[in-house]
Design brief:
This protein is an alpha/beta fold and 243 residues long. It has two domains: 124 residues, 3-Layer(aba) Sandwich (Rossmann fold), CATH 3.40.50.2300; 110 residues, Orthogonal Bundle (Arc Repressor Mutant, subunit A). Helices cover 40% and strands 20% of the residues. The strands form three sheets. It has a five-stranded parallel beta sheet, with helices on both faces. A four-stranded antiparallel beta sheet has the order 6-7-8-9, with no helix packed on it. Strands 10-12-11 form a three-stranded antiparallel beta sheet. Helix 2 packs parallel to helix 3, helix 6 packs across helix 7 and helix 6 crosses helix 8. The longest helix is centred in the middle third of the chain and has 20 residues. The two termini are 26 Å apart. Bound molecules: calcium ion.
């Protein structure tokens, strides 16, 4: 499923750069340069996500945000703003934006946020369905909520894990890392993809961090962490989960 992104930005350079880069990432992109066109485009075509500049001609970003959310409350909106003091105003609103970026920002940061928001929406839609291995390589994955690995039971919904009946101490990142791999059975996942998907844009850890987390995860869920049964190293790439 191709996801549609609507870009609303009056600065030509930024708008064109955003359109080009998001299209290269595989999104279907529509871009407009003022607030009125944004509303028309959203009414006509809808969108799975909106990237919205705040200072716009004709209709300002806040008004566009309000109208778009009135049309579709669930559509995620990322606000772009040149001034960090505008951020409080946006985030504090009842019809709040889902995320924001202060200009100037990097494309990598934007991609991470777009992905995270689309995944969040998708998760809400698909909660309760069982994991579909055929969908495993897409960003759109069904969410597996619980898994039994030998005598270890992991519940991704409550973030609790038990070995036999003893509760395991696992960090949220460890749960998220495991969940990401578990939802892509038998598919090798690159360390860099794990960094993007599990750590996201807030921090800048190294691929070494991934290795450390994997080692800790193995200590907890594997019977023999030195010879893992579930989380396998794929040399030159990263890791994969073997059910
Ligand atoms: Ca502007």
């Amino acid at each position: 499923m191709v996801q549609r992104v609507l870009i609303v930005e009056d600065e030509d350079v930024i708008r064109m750069s955003l359109s080009e880069n998001l299209a290269l990432e595989g999104y279907k992109v529509t871009s407009v340069e003022d607030g009125e066109k944004a509303i028309t485009a959203f009414k006509d075509n809808g969108a799975d996500l909106v990237v919205l500049d705040l200072m716009l001609p004709k209709l300002d970003g806040l008004e566009v945000l309000k109208q778009i959310k009135a049309l579709d409350m669930t559509v995620p909106v990322i606000i772009l703003t040149a001034r960090s003091d505008e951020v409080d105003k946006v985030v504090g609103l009842e019809i709040g934006a889902d995320d924001y970026l202060t200009k100037p920002f990097g494309m990598r940061e934007l991609f991470a946020r777009v992905k995270a928001l689309l995944r969040r929406t998708q998760t809400l839609i698909e909660v309760g369905q069982t994991a579909n291995p055929n969908a495993a390589n897409n960003d759109v994955v069904a969410v597996l909520e619980q898994i039994q690995l030998g005598d270890v039971r992991v519940d991704f919904k409550t973030y609790r894990a038990f070995k036999s009946d003893k509760e395991l101490e696992m960090s949220v990142k460890e749960f998220e890392l495991l969940r990401y791999l578990v939802n892509r059975p038998d598919i090798p996942v690159a360390r860099n993809d794990l960094l993007d998907e599990v750590w996201g844009y807030n921090s800048y850890p190294t691929t070494r961090t991934v290795d450390n987390f994997i080692a800790r995860l193995r200590q907890k869920i594997e019977d023999t962490p030195d010879k893992p049964r579930y989380i396998i190293t794929v040399h030159g790439i990263g890791y994969k989960f073997v059910p």
